[in-house]
Amino acid sequence: MSEKSNPYNVPDTGHVWDDNLRELTNDPPKWWMIGLHASWILVVIYTIIYPSWPWFGGAYKGMMSWTSIGEYKEDMKAIDAIRARYEEKLPGMSAAAILGDSELSQYVTKSAKVLFGDNCAACHGNNGAGNTDYPILADDDWLYGGKIDTIVQTITGGRQGVMPAKGGAQLTETEIDQLAQAISKGEPTTAPAWQKGACFACHGMDGKGMQALGSANLTDHVWRFGKGSIDDIKYTITHGVNDPKDPATRNAVMPKFGGGKLSETDIKKLAVFVHQLGGGK
Amino acid sequence: MTTEADQSVQEHADELYNEYWHVNTGGQTIHAKRMPGRFRNIKWMTASVWLIFFIGPYIRWKDRQAILFDIPGRKFHIFDITIMPQDVWMLSLTLLFFAILLAVVTSIAGRVFCGYFCFQTVWTDIFTFIEEKLEGPPQKRRKLDEAPWSGHKLLIKGSKNLIWIAIGSFTGIHFTLWFVDAFQMWHGYLTLTAPTFAWGAVVVFTFFTYLFGGIMREQVCFWLCPYARIQGVMYDKETILPTYDFHRGEPRGKLKKGQVAEGLGDCIDCGQCVAVCPTGIDIRQGQQEGCITCALCIDACDSVMDKIQKPRGLIRYASWDEIDGIPTKPFWRRARPLVYITIMVLAAGGILYGLTHLGALDLRVLHERQPLYVQQSDGSIQNKYELKILNKLDHDVPVEISVSDAPSGYIMDGANGVITARGGEVTVRTVFMRVKPEALTESRLPVTFVVRSQDGKLDAHYDSMFFSPDR
Q: How far apart are CA A222 and CA A146, in angstroms?
């Protein structure tokens, strides 16, 4: 064993492999030992402070009774405290008043997005973009009116469309076809069937709809059912809406969200949110 | 056994370093002699740059601290300038500027930063200054170190360490003053109500100032500091450094009174250059890793040369080429400094541009993604935009929103009249734009929003798009 392999004459275990490989009994470096002891001390302290050891009848809870759900709740409390500044005011205000207050309406348009997503977006699409056969809320066309109070009414009580079937006994195929062509052009009153079918009774003398009844404006570019093709229009005229016997019927029902389903404050929030989507009057 | 092994490792390291240079591997405390001189004076002057660190936080500017790095508020105030997170690219340019400044200075004159400006050097200098005042010159200090513990030694050592710790805390406190209002912070410290992070910072600073400045000293430069190593490789043969002129000095020999030194060089081997060295190296062995180029050895040698009536400059700032008698070029004709300086000027130009073009107003426009557009009952297409108006000023600014580029015949809604852009905050407005289908020649048309203060002095714009169905 040459002096080179052990220049400092460190003691060894006496085991020698391959003639010159020896197991030295050096102590680990001091800094390393300090680190080792500091580590296990830290672990012990940690397990005293935080929940750790399994035990009969439930694990040890730790000195501070820390839980992750508790931390979550504390964070939620902090967020609620920030929101409280606005939330406290909302119950005592009308939807119109909230809309009039620029700070509150901004708060609501941001925070009610989740509420809208949970309750409205399934039919009306994200941000009121609409879906085929479900009204777009981001445009300026309103069946029942786009004023804030009307929107509150619509959400609270729901709406039930009433378009009777005009096919069969009332109008012939040709008449319906002519009427559909005219509606497609935005000139429903020019078709002979307009008078015969008594369309004006609900859709108004000018065909622009009556918000009191929720009848659609037939002269504009926004379509309540389908995408505005002749076939779509003909189907609506022929079969009407909400026919329980027709499985493919036009569905003109907006469910009610009042009466316990949503709180009054939530409805006010949603009304402001919908009003601010782009078409509120 | 451990101590035995430690000792042998120490011996091995000493042997290794002695082969090339003598470097203190931590086995001894360097007690450097203090001598007056030209570079000693320069050192005091450059060290006093750090007074800014202590005085800076107390400078006020218009009812607030002149320089305040408000981390929670995400705003840096530098006199009239407020820098917000979006301007942080200037920080990277600032870092680049100083990195290159370090390179260019090092390339020209060596580790100027280490020798004259580095906080490690400056604080160690202050600490040893206090040590000398309390314990006396190096010889007495060494004796005191070796002396057995007594009341006298305890008193001296104790008060020295207390002063060191006090300086450390003072340093820590002043560090925190840059981040929170200085007077408020002092109130917090004095009433023991300062926030936890502040106490933490003070404790950390006190500990490391004491450890680095008082205990480790030159060991920090040798084994801890990366810049010490990086700067070493930026030297070349044209870099001027404190250099021992061995052509003139060798062969060295002791000067004996009344004898003419036959065949000997100018170096009388008095050892003063080693005695004054704060890192304990011998400059006569050539430039080496331990040299922080503080030039205190030049002061020492010059004073000796004066005494033996020889010309000054046996140790002087000189490049390798100069010592070797190779003609030297001034730095502005050397490629490396020129390249560095070019980068520096570019970085400085960028910072200057940034600072002068910060703009107090900033506009961001988010186009609504869902729905991308909405058809209105009259057939026109409506797009929704969210305008975020950032006002970097401390006070509210009345602004107006307009459009400088948009499809013809547009109607804008939601940003009419005067809007108050709240000071130091983002004001959000939702804007709707409607365009008749005839004007929609493309499914995407450019729209530029402009926000302008009512007095017309401030403005910002943002390019967005108007989306409509494909045709």
A: 15
The closest alpha carbon to B385, from B410, B360, B408, belongs to B410
Please give the Cα distance from A124 to B93 (Å, whole number).
Answer: 50
Residues in B lying within 8 Å of A, measured between beta carbons: 1-2, 4-5, 8-9, 12, 368, 370-371, 374-379, 382, 384, 428, 430, 432
Check if A71-158+257-275 and A160-254 are the same fold: yes
- Cα dihedral: B127, B129, B130, B134 (round 10): 140
CA A246: distance to chain centroid? 31
DSSP state letter for B313: -
Distance CA A72, CA B226 (A): 43
Q: Which helix (H) or strand (E) holds B398?
A: strand B397-405
Q: Give the separation between CA B323 and CA B237, rounded to whole angstroms.
A: 10
Instruction: Verify whether the Cβ–Cβ distance A222 to B382 is below 8 Å.
Output: no
The answer to whether B171 and B213 have CB atoms below 8 angstroms apart is: no
Task: Say yes or no for a CB contact (<8 Å) between B370 and A8.
Answer: no
Q: Among A154, A146, A93, which residue's Cα sits nearest to residue A119?
A: A154
**Cβ atoms of B377 and A222 closer than 8 Å:** yes
Query: Which residue, B322, B251, B331, B239, is CA-closest to B284?
Result: B251
Report whether A98 contacts B341 (CB < 8 A): no
Contact yes or no for B376 and A141 at CB 8 A: yes
CATH of segment(s) A160-254: 1.10.760.10
Q: Which residues lie below 8 Å from residue A228, measured CB to CB, with a gap of 6+?
A: A184, A221
Closest to B407 in 3D by CA, of B451, B460, B468: B468
From the list A130, A220, A278, the residue facing B432 with the nearest CB is: A278
Residue A126's closest chain B neighbor by CA?
Answer: B370
Chain B residue with CA closest to A28: the answer is B2
Q: What is the pLDDT along chain B (471 residues), one digit of tens a residue?
A: 456 666 766 676 666 555 555 667 677 788 999 999 999 999 999 999 999 999 999 999 888 899 999 988 888 888 888 888 878 888 899 999 999 999 999 999 999 999 999 999 999 999 999 999 999 999 999 999 999 999 999 999 999 999 999 999 999 999 999 999 999 999 999 999 999 999 999 999 999 999 999 999 989 998 899 888 888 888 888 899 999 998 888 888 887 766 666 778 889 888 899 999 999 888 988 888 889 999 999 999 999 999 988 899 999 999 989 988 888 888 888 888 999 999 999 999 999 998 887 778 889 999 998 889 999 988 899 999 999 999 888 789 999 999 988 888 899 988 888 989 988 888 888 899 999 999 998 899 999 999 999 988 888 999 999 999 987
Nearest chain B residue to A220 by CA distance is: B377
Q: Is A106 helix (H, G, I), strand (E, B) or coil?
A: helix
CA distance A1 to chain B (A): 19
* Domain residue ranges of chain A, discontinuous segments joined by +: 3-49, 71-158+257-275, 160-254
**CATH code, A71-158+257-275:** 1.10.760.10
Tokens encoding B331: 């730095």
- ipTM reported for the complex, 2 dp: 0.78
Rounded-to-10 torsion of CA A138, A93, A257, B377: -20
Task: Give the residue from B172, B170, B136, B179 showing the smallest Cα distance to B156.
Answer: B136
Q: Going along A102-235, which residue ranges are E strands?
A: 159-160
Question: B361-467, which class in CATH?
Answer: mainly beta
* Residue A207 backbone class (left: φ over 0; alpha: ψ -120 to 50; beta: rest): left
Coil, helix or strand for B460?
strand
| Residue A46: how many other CB atoms lie within 10 Å | 11
Region label for B402, one of left (φ > 0), alpha (ψ between -120 and 50) or beta (otherwise): beta
